[in-house]
Known about the structure:
The protein is of the alpha/beta class. It has one domain. 34% of the residues lie in helices and 13% in strands. The strands form 2 sheets. It has a 6-stranded mixed beta sheet. A two-stranded antiparallel ribbon has the order 6-7. α4 crosses α6. The N terminus is likely disordered. It binds zinc ion. The site of zinc ion has 9 residues, from α4, α6 and β8.
Amino acid sequence: MSRPRLRNAALASSFARLLGCATLALVALTATPSSGRPPAVARFDALPRASERLAQPIWLPQCGMQVVEWRATSALGAETKPSSEALAVLDDTCREAFARYGDFLRTKNLPRAHARPDVLPQISLLPGNTLLDGKSPRALNDLPTRFEAVAPGCCYWGLYVDSLNHLFLRNDPLVEGDSGKLVENPRFVRTLTHEIGHVLSARLGVWDVIGYDRQRDEDLAEEFVSFMGMHFPAESSAEDLAFHRARPGSRGAPTRTQEAHATPEGGRERPPASASANTSPQR
Ligand SMILES: [Zn+2]
């Protein structure tokens, strides 16, 4: 989870950091969400139910992971449905991220316990846009029936739950390009790259060597996104909707070296996920 991007001065940033730490401590001590009531769901409710799993899991060779759940967003159609093009976005992102993670750790002078990652997570792709169906039952930001026990805050584009060894992602690897053709969605690539950072630091045993620190984990995931050449911030659901619904020729999709949004709406501090969840927050 990268912290929300506050636009004002360092004072606000420091306060937000303090608030985040305080809330995290509270969650760690009580294991209850910020509302104070105990979660109605258990950690394992986050995992896909038998009826939600794909009849045939989809193996991603470059990721070394399989997609076991994929729910499309009807309002966005082909952009969010399983397809060979969408799967290629996942696998290509994995190939590039996996190939460079060792170099990234070396630039940070960080050790690792394993030469290769141990057991990698399974993947769910779920509706994530909270202005469409991202909060609907069993979607990525459905707290009451799915994620409250592992990620009591809202709202996220990605969520890696280490204790479940499961990676939950937004469902839009593709977006309509200027020509009207479906193309790689750079915001999905950003989310997946951030989450791969979490997955690999955990599964290569970085934290086994140096000890786990949540903020360092989040900072490291964001630094990996930058290392991979993506310098645009995570977007809000409203911005995501505009990107998906913009008419061909009017969108301004970021490239990996281009700033996408110069004027964020301004973030707000949100309750952090539980100690075992690593997230990609929306703004
Ligand atoms: Zn994160």
